[in-house]
Amino acid sequence: MAEVVAVLGRGVIPADEPFLHGDDLGVLRGDGIFETANVRGGEPFLLDEHLARMARSAQRMELDLPDAAVLKRLAAQACEAFGAGKEGALRIICTRGPEQGGPPTVYMTLNPVPEAQINARRDGLNLAVLTLGYPVDTRGQAPWLLGGAKCLSYAVAMAAQRHARATGHDDLLWRSEDGFALEGPTSTLVWWQNQTLYTVPADTGILAGTTARFVFDRAEEAGIRTAERRVLVAELMSADGIWMTSSVRGVAPVHTLDGVTINQSDLTATLSEMAGFPVPGK
Ligand code: PLP
């Protein structure tokens, strides 16, 4: 059961109270969008950025997302019920609503960030590399594939994670059919090469990460060069540091990629500090 549940028009409700109908298109089709924001000190982190991305996803999906002000009020109620003492993950969900028609279903859940995600910031990740099945340019040219929209249908992403775990990995990096590194199923790829911090451009169909954007902006301010570019997995293997970033995971270094040991960078602590994620043992 979620620790806190907040429903549009009702506010925070008892977490064991049913509120989602069986014919909701979010359930039947995974037809909807979501965001997950980090909660620290009882406040959602980068909420404006998450709501802006959610509005872009809504536009792509032709979904009627409520105004940001309404969502912010509901998020504040959820955070108040959660308290300030622990790090949380706030999910903001908007589905297409009942199959027979009607308004979108909008609600939020708030749970503590799982230990495994927090520990990965310190211990790093062993990633599989799995094909997404498309060449790198496909999703940018086929809007119906919803590249770059954060839609609810994560069944393929979850199946890929199960496959990665079953083969002894912590998680995975998606690879395009033509060999380019893309992103994780729930995280953004960041790497350090030629004294530059890189991430993958959005024209590959990846989701533009709020955490990576925030870290890159802080890095630029600190005089660290940043850029976006495509990279082949084969080239990525010799990077001077690789991280996966997300609102839940924070900044987690990759120590092994497809069985290859990856160079570790002393930038890890700097990047985590820039994004303000607590690192265990620090
Ligand atoms: N890429 C994908 C596919 C994701 O699902 C996520 C987050 O869940 C990210 C990247 C990381 O984005 P953010 O830093 O905004 O959490």
Main features:
alpha+beta, 6-stranded antiparallel sheet, binds pyridoxal-5'-phosphate, 282 residues, lyase, D-amino Acid Aminotransferase, Chain A, domain 1, 8-stranded mixed sheet, globular
Topology:
Elements: E1 4-7, E2 11-13, H1 25-29, E3 32-40, E4 43-44, H2 47-61, H3 68-82, E5 88-95, E6 105-112, H4 115-123, E7 125-131, H5 138-141, H6 155-166, E8 171-175, E9 188-193, E10 196-199, H7 210-221, E11 225-228, H8 233-236, E12 242-246, E13 250-257, E14 260-261, H9 268-275
Parallel strand pairs: 7-8, 7-13, 10-11
Antiparallel strand pairs: 1-2, 1-6, 3-4, 3-5, 5-6, 9-10, 9-12, 12-13, 13-14
Helix pairs in contact: 7-9
Bound molecules: pyridoxal-5'-phosphate.
Keywords: Lyase
Protein name: 4-amino-4-deoxychorismate lyase
Family: Belongs to the class-IV pyridoxal-phosphate-dependent aminotransferase family.
How would you portray this structure in words?
The chain has two domains: 109 residues, D-amino Acid Aminotransferase, Chain A, domain 1; 159 residues, D-amino Acid Aminotransferase, Chain A, domain 2 (Alpha-Beta Barrel). Strands 7, 8, 9, 10, 11, 12, 13 and 14 form an eight-stranded mixed sheet that branches. The chain has a six-stranded antiparallel sheet with strand order 2-1-6-5-3-4. The chain has nine helices and 14 strands. A hairpin with a 2-residue loop joins strand 3 and strand 4. It is globular and about 50 Å long. The chain is an alpha+beta fold. The site of pyridoxal-5'-phosphate (PLP) has 14 residues, from helix 7 and strand 12. One of its GO terms (cellular component) is cytosol. This is 4-amino-4-deoxychorismate lyase. GO terms for molecular function: lyase activity. Belongs to the class-IV pyridoxal-phosphate-dependent aminotransferase family.
